[in-house]
Amino acid sequence: MTRDLKIAIAGGGLAGLGAAHALRAFGFRAQVFEAAPELGEIGAAVNTSPNATKVLQAFGLGEEIAAVGNVSPGILTRNMQTGELLEFNDLRKQPLRWGAHQYSFHRADLLNVLAGSLDPATIHLAHRLATIEERGSSVALTFTNGAAFEADVVIGADGVRSVIRHALYGDDNPTYTGQMVWRSLLKGSDVPPEVLEPNGHVQWVGPGCHFIAYYIRGREVVNIVTQEDTDKWVAEGWSTRGDPDEMLRSFPNPEPRLEKLISIVTECSKWGLFTRPLTENWGRGRIQLIGDAAHAMLPNAGQGACQAFEDTYILARWLAATADPVEAFANFRRIRIPRVHAMQRISAANARFKHMRDAATQKGLISSGKRSTSGHAEWIRGYNPITEWDKDSTVPLIETPA
Hints:
Layout: E1 7-10, H1 14-25, E2 30-33, E3 45-48, H2 50-58, H3 62-68, E4 70-71, E5 74-79, E6 85-90, H4 94-98, E7 103-106, H5 107-116, E8 123-124, E9 129-134, E10 139-143, E11 148-151, E12 153-156, H6 163-169, E13 175-187, E14 201-206, E15 209-216, E16 221-229, E17 240-242, H7 244-249, H8 256-264, E18 268-275, E19 283-284, E20 287-289, H9 292-295, H10 304-321, H11 325-354, H12 359-367, H13 377-381, H14 385-388
Parallel strand pairs: 1-2, 1-12, 2-8, 5-14, 12-20
Antiparallel strand pairs: 3-7, 4-7, 5-6, 9-10, 10-11, 13-16, 13-18, 14-15, 15-16, 17-18, 19-20
Helix pairs in contact: 1-5, 1-10, 2-10, 10-11
């Protein structure tokens, strides 16, 4: 039975389509409004750790994601200059430990899975939000194409530059972190197998930077994403064309495997990393933000998309359990904000640890078990949104680095 609640979702990316699936699972029919003329995700790859994989499985998409995703064997971490093995987080026994696999996807493939099983009539393309008006028991949306929609509730899944967030709270005043990212996609056949030995998912850490490479679409594509400290200003964005020679100079004296990998790069993009203060401004009344619109985080714990998927399930579950949507949204924020704030803090802390200038101290912390290049795996991966949707999160105390 379809529940009688008119729901508008602003944004047709991973968070927005995930929200449509979550709501459908609990009997709601949501309308998705996407500004672009076609569905598409900026970026090359995305990972779902078990906490997020469980959500996708709860949507009934277990077989579909298994068909397009690579099961991650775990991240092998090497010293960038020497090639020395520092850590291997073996995920091959993960389903026994945490109840689900970690997957690596091409973003377009995961988006296609999400879009493919939704009713096309509920997805409205070329609908760029112009205004949003709170009207007590409803919320009115107007779009630049002249369309209008009045909803009982609105879910803002419109990303880091959220129009809805701006309408509610004004500018966030993002701050440049002094870090930048390089990204590239390579043909898997162009990468010698020994470069990513032995498991096809390697991370190199060095003074002031780190470099990650792994296969997606089987072994058809190698995804590269890096991060480095820099005193240069780099604009925020995802698609600024970069110079491969400049990228190579960003990682001086690399060990032979990494040097070979970088030498294959002929096209790359770059962008600056900006951060926003941790905030509880996630929505009000009948408007609720999710994903990057609510809690954009640095990409150092692999949890940006994962936390958006957690949002979708828990939000839909609260709407199904609570007669008053305003109360449901308030409960959602009460449960989600402490966990997500901890995730934002560990994302910031991870960059500092991965970029330590003292390699000996870094190695000692890893070998002693005091720190990991993958962060606090148990509370991240072991969390089950399906069974813990209404439970206060238990998270470690994490200080945000200055």
